[in-house]
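the two lines:
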Amino acid sequence: MTTNSATTTATPATKGMSRQTLFVGVLLALGLIAPFAVYPVFLMKGLCFALFAAAFNLLLGYVGLLSFGHAMFFGWSAYITAHAAKEWGLTPEIAVLLGTFCAAGMGAVVGWLAIRRQGIYFAMITLALAQLMYFVALQAPFTHGEDGIQGVPRGHLFGLIDLNETMNMYYFVFGVFVLALFFLYRVINSPFGQVLKAIRDNEPRAISLGYQVHRYKLIAFVISAGLSGMAGSVKSLVFQLASLTDVHWHASGEVVLMTLLGGVGTIFGPTAGAYLVVTIQNYFATLGSWVTIIQGVIFVVCVLAFRSGIVGVLRPLLKKRGIEA
Amino acid sequence: MLKKALIGAVALTALTAAQASAQYSDNKIKIGVLTDLSGTYSDLAGKGAVVAAQMAVEDFGGKVNGVPVEIVSADHQNKADIASSIARKWYDAEQVDAIAELVTTAAAIAVREVSKEKGKIDLVSGAASTALTNAKCSATGFHWTYDTAALANGTANAVVKNGGKSWYFLTADYAFGHDLQAQTERVVKANGGEIKGAVRHPFPNSDFSSFLLQAQASGAQIIGLANAGADTINAIKQAKEFGITQGGQSLAGLLVFITDVHSLGLDTAQGMMMTTGYYWNRDDETRAWSKRWSAKMDGKMPSMVHAGTYSSVMHYLKALAAAKTDDGMKVADQMRALPIKDASGFAVNGKIRADGRMVHDMYLAQVKKPADSKGAWDYYNIVRTIPGDDAYQSLADSKCDLVKK
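prediction for all of em together
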């Protein structure tokens, strides 16, 4: 397992290493056996949002930039993947990569414009651009407006594995998720990641040390946008649907909620937060509009009781046992 | 052995019970009512549709060949992705056998895709688009209550023949609105009318002022409202405030439900022409059923969507009993074969075609003047009955690949 060797290099203490290995191993095993116990489509939805939240967390947790427009990457890559798979007949892996690269490209343009400002201005610029893209999605002919792109074929992975089988689809999504999370982990624990944290903690000092902070921010923004796009692409294959919901600003708000609930600036926090929110939406769906009220109450309780989120609260406890979460 | 002994003892009942346990999956029939429980269309469909489906189950006796029937419901919030994921969950994990109601075309099409893939039955009542029986048709999918072609053939025909020759459209910007506008344009042009233009508004919308001003400036005699539910109500109310109707232009609600007329009040709605698949006060049968429904719904009266949901669920239960299985294809075959008749008085001369369209008589109605109304909910004069074959798109024009040509 690649994850193990990575953690080995990251944590020098031998005892800590074995505990960390065990912890990650248990999580991986849970992920592998989960679809036998829980409804797989629900798990896949959770994984897609977990990846989305993890990508968002790279910006909020490690660069300190609150983007309020990530839905545009998530939703637009879903449209692109859906269109590529349905109209052009591309295989799923190429369609997903196409969606990811388009989102990264959009991220480069949006990021280039937005990182010149900070705080509320940064959030407003990203929101404005995301709303712009929302209206394009509403009116462009190929997105089919309110209907969305429906009946997207899941196709055959590498032309071989039939993704219409729910289990195959699950392991594909799980694989994408694990690889992407591992990639994020490596980014955060690289010299590049150290610079990002330095910028987050004290930007003028990072500038005085000679770092080109704009470049670092832009690269982080592009990575975050690209991985958000990957999440959206995979989601469009899971549900065989790309719709306006994913480009709407609600989705941008939801990912903030997930990240905050789970724990900003932690590796596994966004995943925990995403599953919490998706579970609420899934199992309380019959209550209709009460879902948002329940979400709101949980959010208020979290902010009052444990500000650093679920994983943020657990982290000191785990750290005592040599586990980095 | 015990089963055989029972069959010997009480022939008929035990026979059906034994068959039932063998052929209905998981020994339960579950019908999902997926509708708008909180939004723009919750009045014309919503909770009333759930009640109608429950009435159908009760009237059928609660059991099909000894197997209990259960109704579950959920709110799709008029969104395709929510509808699709609920449908998938229902079929995959909660043993739902059929999904009924499905207001909002985008949601209905999303569920149609899932149902088709899983070979399950969908009974569309609230959604309007003819796409459901053309490009998106399915062997196990049915479109029950009305569609945009029937609305256009009824209302637009009548309006053009009464002298409304030039039209301007206010269209809800999604598949249903586009489809309703296209169908209406076809009828208007065929009758020698003229299209002055159209403007699309977002769905759902509450402020129609800029759209209404454009419509006013177009100088068209008729402003066609290709939208539904709360959107139509808001547009009509705001048109009155702008003095559009006083200025000589008239509004044609292309899809108006009795619940909309109730919200508008007879003062505002009087004289409006509309096409409907059901009117509660049409004869003794419809009155009797509607009053039973009304007793469960705080004195409201059913829209055509409510009656259509009852009728479609009832017909589905009959087909289940006749097919002796819940296999989608076999039940669908029975649904096409059996005559359609139920207590609501819906589906007069009803029959199901190869494309899944349930063709039945439609009614051209005109809203009464306040003075002519004899009581609460007494709103319509039925101007004429439109025979089903004239109302709906002909099978020869269907783009459904199930239709043999």
